[in-house]
Amino acid sequence: xxxxxYNLRKNHASGELSALxxxxxxxxxxxxxxxxxxxxxxxxxxxxxxxTKRNRLGLAIYYRRDRFAAVKTEAFALKKSLHDRILAPAHxxxxxxxxxxxxxxxxxxxxxxxxxxxxxxxxxxRNQIRAAHAELRGLGDGLPTLMVGDYNYPYFQSxxxxxxxxxxxxxxxxxxxxxTRYKFYxxxxxxxxSVGLHIDKVETLPAGASDHMPILVTTDYATTHVPAxxxx
Length: 232
What we know:
Elements: E1 2-7, H1 17-23, E2 28-35, E3 42-43, E4 46-51, E5 57-64, E6 68-76, H2 82-86, E7 94-101, E8 106-114, H3 122-139, E9 145-150, H4 157-166, E10 170-172, E11 190-195, E12 197-204, E13 215-221
Parallel strand pairs: 1-2, 8-9
Antiparallel strand pairs: 1-13, 2-5, 3-4, 4-5, 6-7, 7-8, 9-11, 10-11, 12-13
């Protein structure tokens, strides 16, 4: 499976999406800071599962409808930072979709995540990541899960890796840095946490109109097939 995650920088990079989808044989596309009001239902072979509703700039997930069927999508509010409360409230920082992979008969969960900005503490972002993983378990406990997005966590990632592993997840960074707008904030901002999946590689794609670069995740199931029985 091939999944792209892209923070569009307040929708500035939205004009790149069609070309991006055409350039890569994608299974899913996960977006952050996208204008959810004007999202197209289709982007090439990808269909919009859903987007967040409580912010104009929010999150969205697209999936390849000729292979996957969307079972359920939910958006979740996470603990707010001071920035969220005072300047630009972000009510929903996570959206997850439970999918049926019709090629294998397996179910999985794919999520788009956007952590609190750098004005918040790493401890708050860790709280948000831990809470996000817990919410996704509610969509399907024990299912393979891929959570991609803007984690806003460029420093002390070894500590984050340890904390993530304590929840059963793996953390995967891309091959090069994903954010270059500010001299002192270069680094890996956009990455992956996953469970029940083998992450083959995570590639940083060329920069566009956003201050974030897209990342392309290539992954497959890590465990043996267990037939899906509950699509509710």
